[in-house]
Amino acid sequence: MKSFKKKSFCMVLVLALLLTACGSGGTDGTDNPTSEAGSTGGNDKPFIYVMQQLIGSIDPAKSKDETEIIALVNLYDPLFYPDIANQSMNPVEHIAESYTVSDDGLDYTIKIRNDVKFQSGNPLTAKDVAYSMTRMLAINEGNAWLWSSVLKAENISTPDDNTVIFKLNNAYAPFISSLTQLFVVDSETLKANYKDGTFGEDKDFGQAYLEENSAGSGPYKLTSWDKQSQITFDANEDYWKGWRDNQIKKVEMKYVVEEATVKTLLVSGQADMINQWQSVAAYKELETHNTLTVQRDPSTKLQYFPMNTQKAPTDDINIRKAIALAINYEDALTNILGGAEPAIGPVPVIVPGHSDNLQPVKTNIEEAKALVTQSKYSGGDLKVTFMYLADVTEQRQYSQLVTANLKEIGIEVELQPVTWAQITDAATSPETTANLTVISDSLKYPHVDSHTYGIYHPSAQGSYRSMSWFDNADVTAILDSARIAIDTDEQMKLYKESQDLIAAEYPAIYLANPTHHIAFNNSVKGYCYVGLMGYDIGFYYFTTE
Amino acid sequence: MQKYILKRLLWMIPTLVGLSLLIFLLSRLMPGDSVRLAAGTDATAEQIAALEEKMGLNQPLYVQYFKYMFGLFRGDWGYSLRTQHNVFTDIRDTFAATFELSLCSMILAVLIGVPLGVLAAVKNNKFADHFIRIFSLSGIALPRFWLAILFQLMFSYVLALFPVIGRGDIIPRTITGLRIVDSLITFNFPALVDSIKHIILPAISLSIASAAQIMRLTRTSMMEQLNKEYITAAFSYGLPQNLITNKYMLKNAFISVLTTIGMQFGSLIGNAFLVETVFGWPGMAQYSISGLLYKDYNAIIGVTLVIGILFALINLAVDLAYGLLDPQIRLGKEA
Fold first, then answer.
1. Which residue of B has its CA nearest to A4?
2. What's the average model confidence in pLDDT over A135-154?
3. What pLDDT digit, counting tens, does each position of A108-122 carry?
4. Is the distance from CB of B211 to CB of B113 less than 8 angstroms?
5. Residue A39 pLDDT more than 60?
6. Under DSSP, is residue B77 helix (H, G, I), strand (E, B) or coil?
7. What is the pTM of this model?
8. Is residue B203 part of a domain?
9. Which residue of B has its CA nearest to A271?
10. Which residues of chain B have a CB within 8 Å of the CB of A265?
11. Which domains can be identified in chain A, with CATH numbers?
12. Contact yes or no for A226 and B282 at CB 8 A
């Protein structure tokens, strides 16, 4: 009898474990009955956002990646901001009240609002804007590359407390758009907290202070920061835009990498929103829960495979075109990306300035084979190298797809699964860059210049963005002209023309504008994807029911 | 004894120097440009060069190595390319979390493994023995991260008994960095309960494989003792079973188990990465793996040195413990 009870107990225990392993919590659409849906209900409870990467720095002069930009968007204010109200990425005045541009496109006179205060209580004036840009240029990290070639610190002036003038070295079409990335710091607070440094009387420019503190005017204040796991913000009650009912007053951004854990947190209600970097399958699963919203938007991401135009055999346009025509786009978009919009040329479709003249490339094996025979490498053994991130599922699937597709036209593929560090290293010279590389790129600033000049101008070579080593004199000339064009219509016309010329050279396989996914609790309202990395996670614009 | 300890500590120095040199060279040989990665994907050539200079990476390798080694003693463990902080600060912030998790896991592994091993030996070839052996085989075979996800689903999501992630919401005053210990020292019982609730699932997940190893070895060692003449004599004298098992047999069987415990503790710290990832545990293991993927030179060396020191100290502690268990091998004294 005793033996039978023991055996029964063991069987029940094993069964319980197996059942839990088979189920994943709510695949039948039911929800966790033991937790409330949503951890924030207006809003003493913290709003919990799950981030996929640690925040290295909250210094506006050093931020580089999405999580850092999210922190800055909430702690600071930039001069211009994406037009959230109209769900557009086009920059509109934020701390700036208005601006004018001189006829030669060199002088930008920006009027600053006079009702903004920093969290310290100090008023935000033009000298803080000037200081922020000067500081950015001097430290020369983070996003300083946006301005380092077009602006010198000595050419920034502040004729009065509410006016700042930027005198550029040369006309620069995306200048206003780029100012969405200039977050204004409290110069008085920083100056009072200088430590020894290498910037003369500006010492360390407050870098040591901003490693542990913030000095912004944004809607949230830094409350605590465990650099290995979590950052917490509390509402800046004196925020110049004011507060409405049901806005979020406390935020915890938690670092969780494991996808299963991220899903568990959201489904159980212990997180309110998760980041965009989970797998497509994860979002499909989360959709089955009726307490959750999975929002999909066309994105400004571009998934493409740059083809090295300076390395055999992809230095031959016939080979590049053949490869582009051999790819099974339908398979990639449907089965690998779970349904994504096809890319049409080098600029994501939703970016203002995208050329309407372009059409998506369609698979055509026969034409591809014909192009191979027309190439200068015809008759020989054709082999290309394909570099991709080894730990990304979609990219491993691309490698298999490309191998199979190119085999049909007689091209052998040598796979190179690598880490991101290896890709950025390989990008530094045409010899080390693979024939094809998988790149996923996002808009760096809300302007078509980011995906044209930023990728296909010779000045961009040497970075991961420019692994096609594209160098076309006509395109370069057009891009140079576009950048200095004053008239917006003329600018856009030139940018579109550049896209047409670029696409005609087949420097890349333009695969997809992957759909942007994000998942959050149904109680969260106000989320708006505007296409600019990090700016959709402005907690100030969310409310909870 | 003191001479022995001093000798062992001194021998650690060349071991650690050799380890640091090896890992320094290996990290430089790993493919990938970590400076470019750290500077940002849009960094200009000037920005990259400036960062290389800031980190001293434009100097000859031997200069970099010596500067690094001298910096170790001043608390300057180099700049982390990934976190942009001094590696010493990063390791200080994360080591306690991993050590606490590993220590709790080890304690659990011993508390589970040793008694079950003893029981299996005493009930040799009976139901208990078979069940325990199946359990130990499963514990070794099942991957830690799978168990971690399973426990998380069952106990955090379905049953909602434990939190899903993190080290704790109530943070006691930091004295040792081990939250359970700090809570006890400061009599902060809400923090104690909160810390225990957060550590239970990760500790169990991490401990099972070690418990299984300990269980098997304890069983084997105990069964060897079972056949010894002194045990037969003890039984014939009518001594109680528990006394014979727990006082005489276990003490003699434990020497080989102790070696395993020492090795397991060291490996727990390295294997904690997957469990830390699943439970969002802000530990050094996760920090080190991220450092490897980003080719974060200084972080890789720093973590390797810390683990190396820890291994050496654990081995020393195990060797000293032998002397406590067996007078015949009391170190530094003649038998």
1. B127
2. 93
3. 999 999 999 999 999
4. yes
5. no
6. coil
7. 0.85
8. yes
9. B164
10. 164-165
11. 35-75+218-298+518-545 (3.40.190.10), 77-189 (3.90.76.10), 302-513 (3.10.105.10)
12. yes
